[in-house]
Amino acid sequence: MTEEMNNEMAEVKDFSVGEIVTGTVTKVEEKQAYVNVGYKMDGIVPISELSSLHVEKVSDVLNEGDEVELQVIKLTDEELVLSKRAVAAEKAWDDLAEKHENGETFEAEVADVVKGGLVVDLGVRGFIPASLVERHYVEDFSDYKGKTLRVKVVEMDKEKNKLILSQRAVLDEEAAEKKRETLNQLNAGDVLEGTVQRLTDFGAFVDIGGVDGLVHISQMAHHHVDTPSEVVNEGDVVKVKVLGVDPDNERISLSIKDTLPGPWEALEGKFQHGDVVEGTVKRLVSFGAFVEIAPGVEGLVHISQIANRHIGTPGEVLKEGESVKAKVLDVNVTERRISLSIRALEEEKEAKAEKAAKNEYQKEDDHSGFSLGDMIGDQLKKYKK
After folding, report:
1. Pick from 118, 184, 209, 261: most CB atoms within 10 A?
2. Pick the CATH number of 262-366 from 2.40.50.140, 3.30.565.10, 3.10.110.10, 3.90.550.10
């Protein structure tokens, strides 16, 4: 045996199944690759041993000349079978176990969209169920392929090759932290903007920075509101005032009404003495009737100004809910007082009617007088002739 042959034999490495080896890719075929790892023959890496995910062709993963780390999975005198996937998986499980234990957040790129969720390749196949992708419902995940998500490990079982991940867990934690910060920073009296999240029979929930506060229906406007949708819609950006904060129970009371000009402030210059207004009788009291002539603004029709005759009670003439017209007698915005008169309009109406009748009578009188004079005059002229 020559010295050269002895050296070649000495350089041939001795491997065992499970051992990790390093080699160079010497040839790439459609379904397998050949790698020189210092053995008496090149090792074979089947396409199924390239990745934890499906691979279309070997060249998608390996090229000639690549340096790779592989695990021996089969060894005979005639064959050496190697796995890239096994090496990646072993490292991945150890890394993922540590991340799971520490509750660590890490990034993962979506490799595929499948029924029920998303698949990622972390050296092992990871699955993100649809319900754990976002905090909100997603109907179509088709555009998630290739996206990088921030995830946490929520369940793993190496023996069963099971790895469940969640992006929602990360988003929920961030939302909870933002909520805590907002609750700690808020004070009664603060005025800020928020977004209407949802409407209920009793009010609207408004997001004011990661936390929802309730605008009770009584705090939506200065006037009476039957349903919140009369004032706001979901998605509206509104200005609100903080009425109260309860960090322990995570409750915030808000008001839209307190950020709006009061009905009396908005009334400035709108009504003048002598104006005729229309309104709704809201309340009857012993001394008169309160009539709403603008949202949240009521004027008083004193009992003496209800009718142009004597009445014992306002109820003899008016009913609550009735629509009436009245004349403005006096406006005092500072004292929030408006005096109205229905009687004044009735008297004006009667005066106009009397004047119209008088004019009509005068016309008839003038007409008949003129005709009679003319007739007598004509007869006298004829007689004189």
Report:
1. 118
2. 2.40.50.140
